[in-house]
From TrEMBL:
It comes from the Bacteria. Keywords: Membrane, Transmembrane, Transmembrane helix. GO terms for cellular component: membrane. Coiled coil: none annotated. Residues 64-86 have a biased composition (Pro residues). This is Cell envelope integrity protein TolA. The keyword Transmembrane helix applies. Pfam families: TonB_2. It is a single-pass membrane protein. InterPro entries: TonB/TolA_C (IPR006260).
């Protein structure tokens, strides 16, 4: 029986030695072994120092030729210092493009191009419209000039025809006066009140008078009108003035504008008539 157990003390297992202390000891021993191996190998590899000796012979030395004269020492040319190294600065690395900014620039550029294109098209249309308008005005002017020319030619022909008729009528009237003397009142055509009224009404319808009519009395103008058998007026003479020069001029312009004058029912006309023109209607 175990004496510890007999004495009443329980048996305890003795503790095992620590593992780290044995590990350290083993490493130290191995290190010393490696050091001795390395030192021994190096000691054996050292080459012995060689000792050289020269033997001089006096005779040989005396027979030897004299040494050459000393050569001038040639100093090497100084090596120029190397050029300074220039520091090449590397360009900064490009920044990554901003996609949103690039898109915005592209959008603005496109809008600008569209606006410029629209402006060019609008300018082109305006120039075309201007050319068309100028062409139209030129055509209208040419047509107007042509119409004016035709109207002048027509007016000149009409005036020439009237002049010829007037001359013919004057010749006939002069011939009748030379043959029969003064015209007899008995041979003069009877006055037709309706004919005079219609003739006077036409002339009054062409009177353009813008003056005042609030004048004392009733200014009256009387004109002697000479006409052709066709009713065309070939002349007029003021017999009585109304006293209002503006009204007299308006009556004269109306007489010219009313040619040809109305005829009688039978188609004849009186060579001279003297219608009365009153400023105020009664």
């Amino acid at each position: 029986m175990n004496p510890a157990a007999a004495g009443g003390v329980p048996y305890q297992v003795p503790p095992e030695p620590k593992a780290w202390s044995s590990t350290v000891l083993a490493l130290a021993v191995h290190g010393l072994l490696l050091f001795f191996l390395w030192f021994g190998i190096r000691w054996q590899n050292n080459a012995p120092v060689a000792v050289e000796a020269e033997v001089w012979d006096v005779k040989t030395e005396m027979a030897a030729p004299p040494p050459p004269p000393p050569q001038p020492e040639v100093k090497p040319e100084p090596t120029p210092p190397p050029p300074p190294v220039q520091k090449v600065e590397e360009p900064p690395a490009p920044k990554p493009p901003d996609i949103a900014l690039e898109r915005e620039k592209a959008r603005k550029l496109k809008e600008q191009q569209i606006a410029e294109q629209k402006l060019a098209e609008q300018k082109k249309r305006e120039e075309e419209l201007k050319k068309e308008e100028q062409k139209k005005l030129a055509e209208e002017k040419a047509a107007k000039d042509k119409a004016d020319k035709l109207a002048k030619e027509k007016k000149a022909a009409e005036e020439k025809r009237l002049a010829k008729l007037r001359d013919d009528e004057i010749k006939r009237f002069t011939a009748s006066l030379g043959a029969h003397g003064t015209a007899s009142k008995s041979t003069a055509p009877k006055s037709d009140s309706g004919y005079i009224a219609s003739l006077t009404a036409k002339i009054k319808g062409n009177i353009i008078y813008g003056g005042s009519r609030d004048l004392p009395g009733n200014p009256t103008a009387i004109y002697r009108i000479t006409q052709l058998p066709t009713g065309e007026v070939i002349g007029y003479k003021k017999i009585q003035s109304s006293g209002v020069p503006e009204y007299d001029r308006a009556v004269e312009q109306a007489i010219t504008a009313s040619s040809p004058l109305p005829k009688k029912k039978d188609g004849s006309v009186e060579r001279t008539i003297e219608p009365i023109f009153k400023l105020k209607e009664e």
